[in-house]
Amino acid sequence: MLTQPHLTDHERIVITGVGLTAPIGNSLPEFRGNLLEGRSGVVPFETRYMGPVLAGVCRFDELRYQKRKEVRRGTRAGSISVYCANEAVRDARLDWPAVAKDRVGVYIGITEHGNVETENEIFEISKYGYDTATWSHHHNPRTVANNPAGEVTLGMGITGPHYTLGAACAAGNLGFIHGLQMLRLGEVDLAIVGGVSESIHTFGIFASFKSQGALASHADPAKASRPFDLDRNGIVVAEGGCLCTVERLADARRRDAPIYAEIVGYGINSDATDFVLPHASRQAECMRLALRRAAIGPEQIDILSSHATATEQGDIEECQAIREVFGAAPRLAVNNTKSFIGHAMGAAGALELLGNIPAFQDGMAHATINLDRLDPACGLPQIVANTPRDMGQVNYILNNSFGMLGINSVVIVRRFTP
């Protein structure tokens, strides 16, 4: 049996505030409630040149923390980030005016950024004979890679370090991992971390998945996202965001902060095999690396939040990786959040992690919905299908997030114990 290494309160990193917007909720309680009730957020959506598609669409109050002028000047990813960051700070019960803003870091994972604005500008100048005199002077600050994190610093007066972490669909986890590292290095005293996505507003992502034969369709939008199911036919693209405040335990204790969970393990590695096709063994290695850092065995994981996107090879490779690491572990519950909201790209890992964290309080593993005919190649006995599973007590959650060009990330959190 592995034992948790002794860490000081300055080395232990905890999640103290949550802000999110997802196709099924704009707060953690709302998001969690819809996950447990099995409600899908996938709806019909119109996109340029392609007409009707299916997508996970967020509906949050953009003007809660921004003025109309700021929304117009910025980006959708920026607005999502500003909303989620402010909600997280508020949820963490921070005395924001008294916080030293130069000691706050903002680390936001993204899959891609700039495509939306570039597509929009090209569409607009096409109406004027491609005269670049009509090109927006806001284009450059809208499309630089640090835009979402930068908009947060502008909106909240943060003068510490900020950047976005381009890690494809592994990016949501990367925000948490980088925040943890910077806190332990003493570079910042508070980190705002997670991931965001504006992907549904670029027609290119839909067109590319369609050309790959990987864009989901279904007569009933709510049933379109079907990870592990034999009748799946591709990815549902979604937007969203989830940002959290993470702090050293010593600082959280000092102000009697709420604590959702402690981050105890993580792993990042690369397949180095293909642009888009995943590699089960590398994914398994990433999970093992996270388990070693957490100093726990696979039998101690209660819930595994899967990455599965409802592509055949992606689902099968991840299931093979899970078998390699966990075997037939009888207590393990494997679930999937994309079946509810679609694939929120850079936000996916963060939303999927936080959607599961309330299990530390309610003891429930939310289900994978739309799982009517389990693909035999994905036949893990631990998959929670269609109905939530009462786990009793949940102590450890492992969150998988994998991305194109073979980037893999895993985060492990545990129930906070003083």
| Secondary structure: helix percent | 25-40%
The strand order across the widest sheet is: 5-4-6-8-1-9-15-14-10-11
Q: CATH homologous superfamily name of the largest domain?
A: Thiolase/Chalcone synthase
Helix/strand order, N-terminal first: EHEEHHEHHHEHEHEEHEHEHEHHHEEEE
Cα-atom radius of gyration: 20 Å
Average pLDDT rating = 97
Could you name the key traits of this structure?
single chain; 418 residues; alpha/beta; Peroxisomal Thiolase, Chain A, domain 1; 2 domains; 10-stranded mixed sheet; 3-stranded mixed sheet; 33% helix
Structure in words:
It contains 14 helices and 15 strands. With 418 residues, the chain is α/β, with parallel strands linked by helices. It folds into two domains: 13-254, Peroxisomal Thiolase, Chain A, domain 1 (3-Layer(aba) Sandwich); 266-414, Thiolase/Chalcone synthase (Peroxisomal Thiolase, Chain A, domain 1), CATH 3.40.47. The strands form three sheets. A ten-stranded mixed beta sheet has the order 5-4-6-8-1-9-15-14-10-11, with helices on both faces. Strands 2-3-7 form a three-stranded mixed beta sheet. A hairpin with a 3-residue loop joins strand 2 (42-47) and strand 3 (51-56). It is globular and about 65 Å long. The model has no long low-confidence stretch (mean pLDDT 97).
